[in-house]
Design a protein that fits this description.
Chain A: This is Sugar ABC transporter permease. Chain A: Pfam families: BPD_transp_1. The structure holds two protein chains of two kinds. By secondary structure, chain A is mainly α. Chain A contains 14 helices and two strands. Chain B has two domains: about 190 residues, Periplasmic binding protein-like II (D-Maltodextrin-Binding Protein, domain 2); about 200 residues, D-Maltodextrin-Binding Protein, domain 2 (3-Layer(aba) Sandwich). In chain B, α10 runs antiparallel to α11 and α10 packs across α18. Classes of the chains: A mainly alpha, B alpha/beta. Chains A and B meet through α2 and α7 of A and α1, α3, α12 and α18 of B.
Chain lengths: ~325, ~425
């Protein structure tokens, strides 16, 4: 297979025997030395905190006081805690409301951006990233103002058309939609670019042949673009699942009258926000760590499910 | 053989990284220790810590203050918690009264200020204020910087349009009780079609509950929030205000609240002394249209902050010198003149500098007198480690009735259920 030998290597005279040992040694350690920084940093900021979280979850852990071992009490408490299930329900609801539209919008946009006759293609592709590079906090504050009950732009437009004002923040569905809109706005461009990159690898000739055969834009999209995108779609579903389960900044900032719980009846408190509330306003680090472990289990389970589905899908391709 | 070499290199690289990290932190430590009169100060926003630090530096040019405004009061307490757990602490930190009990319960994290001379000056402060930073073992972990006397801020121009009196003495006579306050609100709303007060949770419940002699704990430290007549009375009073339809349904410190204040969509805010700065900052165009009147019930306290020195402080002596100089009765009086924070030292309450202070933003109201009067004859209650959590659940239940679709008849029970879930009681 690898028959080609680089000219420089081929042209080298045989190395003197004295240097052979040293060069062999250097060549062996070099790759390990190159990758070491990553593993050291991963251990310090990833693995060790993760393992430590499992440890803390077994304690009634006051960060500035005593640490009392309580075994699995935090976990049994969590299973009976309606606030936990409420947060889990909110998280899944917000994730679905944001991921599904986001991926659909991105698919259609990517197909449009891939069009041969698109003018100013680079401009449109670049602007897609603007929401992604905007600070989440700024996004949250601006959207919260736009959706405000009394003074928001959206409700002003609604009242011009003769409708009643909608209080997005105080209702369960309203607050979920508001957060989902922010998440979708932030991520659709990024996802669309991922799809676009994948689509550009598809030879133009296939589209041209399809056009010659009389296939319109929709058929081209369904029968060429979509199958070509399958692996990257699976990838974006996995990443948006992991991201969606960890939504934090938006619910933290939209209901600032009730900090850390996103509304008086916790209508949009997500799991990460519940974790933050327990850890940093109640100082119950053990309980917060148990929430973290539960979240970890959920993410691993969903990622595993996605992986399973993706390996099922691949053989069917073509 | 080869494998051992590899692992040796990996170890070396790791050690090098580790040493780099260590040398970085150690050099910082030595530089901090060498500067004998410098100290690190964590404060929160909105209380003009920069002003206090600058004043102090003018008197003590040899001192260097590394001031950090961490965030709001709660964020500062969170950062302090993390710092105490991690071991890298500031020399001096400002803690809000509501966050204080959690720290007083773990006094081993702080320098007992009696070792630096707090015993000599503790008589300068209101006794019920200095009792808050005093731990069970008798150690004093904080020195009061201010207190939160209570009053009502109202828009005199809007009162005039609604046919209500505008003079602050007459306005105070409109509401000797909270029931009378709600009746006044009904008159205002009927005359103008607009809301009277910003919300029920903060401007009614949190005021009434802070006017009693017992709140969520009895003097022995037992939880009594369910039985306390003051708490139930405050809760019912807030529900009455909601039912009367006089609230603007704007939660304090939200965007909507700021916008409504600017537009004059409510005419009244319950204003503990620290609220005055927020009104001034949020609605600068309403200068001269506001005035301040006595709160229904006459007296009450909400808030106040404390300066503490964490145990691991590198320079506790410089931090204590700062406390002693700025928090003396004279120091607090000077700071009142500059930043409108109410002294916790009763010896200056009759000082002309305080009694003659008038605030032009609030139509020249004598804020010093109005607010210190609200502190006289006050019998304060015990604030416990879960006071903030309990209060939050009560106000959330009220907000849900006011802004959500909560059933007022079930609100109290819902709040109690949530409190039990939150504090495990």
């Amino acid at each position: 297979m690898t028959t080609s030998i680089s000219p420089t290597k081929a042209g080298l005279p045989p190395a003197p025997p004295v240097d052979a040992a040293r060069r062999g040694f250097t060549e062996i350690i070099a790759p390990y030395a190159y990758i070491t920084p990553f593993f050291v940093i991963f251990a310090v900021f990833g693995l060790i905190p993760l393992l430590f979280t499992f440890y803390v979850a077994l304690f009634d852990w006051n960060p500035i006081g005593e640490h009392v071992f309580v075994g699995l009490d935090n976990f049994s408490g969590l299973l009976g805690d309606t606030r936990f299930w409420n947060a889990a329900r909110n998280t899944v609801s917000i994730w679905l409301l944001s991921t599904v539209p986001q991926l659909l919008i991105a698919l259609v946009l990517a197909h449009m951006l891939n069009h041969v006759r698109l003018r100013l293609a680079v401009f449109f592709r670049m602007t897609m990233l603007v929401p992604y590079i905007t600070s989440v906090a700024a996004t949250a504050i601006v959207f919260a103002q736009m959706f405000d009950r009394d003074y928001g732009l959206l409700n002003w437009l609604l009242s011009l058309m003769g409708f009643e004002h909608i209080d997005f923040n105080q209702s369960v569905m309203g607050s979920h939609v508001l957060i989902a809109v922010m998440v979708t706005w932030r991520w659709f461009g990024y996802t669309a670019l991922l799809y676009l990159a994948s689509l550009q690898a598809v030879p133009r000739a296939i589209y041209e042949a399809a056009a010659v055969d009389g296939a319109g834009g929709v058929r081209q999209f369904l029968h060429i673009s979509l199958p070509a995108l399958r692996p990257v779609i699976v990838f974006t579903i996995v990443t948006s699942t992991i991201g969606g389960l960890q939504i934090f900044t938006e619910p933290l900032l939209i209901n600032r009258g009730t900090p850390n719980i996103c509304g008086p009846i916790r209508q949009c408190q997500t799991l990460t926000l519940f974790l933050f509330e327990q850890g940093f306003t109640q100082f119950r680090f053990g309980y917060a760590a148990a929430i973290g472990v539960a979240l970890f289990v959920m993410v691993v389970a969903l990622a595993g499910l996605n992986y399973f589905l993706s390996t099922r899908i691949r053989p069917v391709k073509g | 053989m080869k494998f051992r070499n590899v692992s040796a290199v990996v170890l070396t690289v790791t050690a090098a990284l580790g040493m780099a990290a260590c040398s970085g932190s150690s050099s910082e430590t030595s530089s901090g220790a060498s500067a004998g009169s410098s100290f690190e100060f964590w404060s929160f926003t909105g209380i003009d810590a920069k002003g206090s630090a600058a004043e102090y530096k003018a008197k003590r040019p040899d001192v260097e203050i590394k001031l950090t405004e961490v965030g709001n009061a709660q964020e500062t307490a969170q950062a302090l918690t993390t710092a105490l757990a991690g071991g890298k602490v500031p020399d001096l930190v400002l803690i809000q009264g509501d966050d204080l009990p959690k720290f007083v319960q773990q006094p081993q994290n702080f320098v007992d200020l009696r070792t630096l001379g707090a015993d000599k000056i503790k008589g300068d402060y209101l006794d019920w204020v200095i009792s808050q930073p005093t731990a069970k073992d008798g150690s004093i972990i904080g020195i009061p910087t201010d207190v939160g006397g209570m009053a009502i801020a109202y828009r005199a121009d809007l009162f005039k349009k609604a046919g209500l009196p505008t003079d602050r003495e007459e306005v105070a006579k409109l509401w000797p009780t909270w029931d009378a306050f709600i009746e006044t609100g009904k008159k205002y709303t009927a005359a103008t079609g607009k809301a009277f007060v910003d919300n029920a949770a903060t401007s009614v419940y949190s005021q009434v509950v802070n006017q009693g002699e017992e709140k969520y704990y009895d003097p022995a430290g037992n939880l009594v929030y369910e039985q306390s007549p003051q708490v139930k009375a405050a809760f019912d009073q807030a529900l009455k205000a909601v039912a009367a339809g006089i609230t603007a349904k704007q939660s304090t410190f939200t965007e909507g609240w700021s916008a409504a204040m600017k537009k004059g969509d409510f005419a009244v805010i319950a204003a503990p002394v620290w609220m005055l700065g927020s009104i001034r900052d949020n609605a600068p165009d309403t200068k001269g249209e506001w005035d301040i009147a006595t709160i229904p019930g006459g007296s009450g306290n909400w808030g106040g902050s404390f300066l503490a020195i964490p145990k691991g402080a590198k320079n506790p002596k410089a931090a204590w010198e700062y406390i002693a100089a700025t928090q003396s009765p004279q120091g607090q009086l000077d700071h009142f003149a500059q930043a409108r924070s109410l002294p916790a030292t009763p010896s200056v309450y009759k000082d002309p500098k305080l009694t003659s202070a008038k605030d032009e933003f609030f139509s020249g109201a004598s804020i010093g007198t109005i607010y210190t009067d609200s502190l006289l004859g006050l019998k304060p209650f015990l604030i416990g480690p879960d006071s903030t959590t309990i209060g939050t659940e009560f106000t959330n239940a009220l907000t849900n009735v006011e802004q959500g679709k909560g059933d007022p008849a079930k609100a109290w029970d819902a709040a109690v259920t949530n409190i039990k879930a939150a504090i495990g009681g």
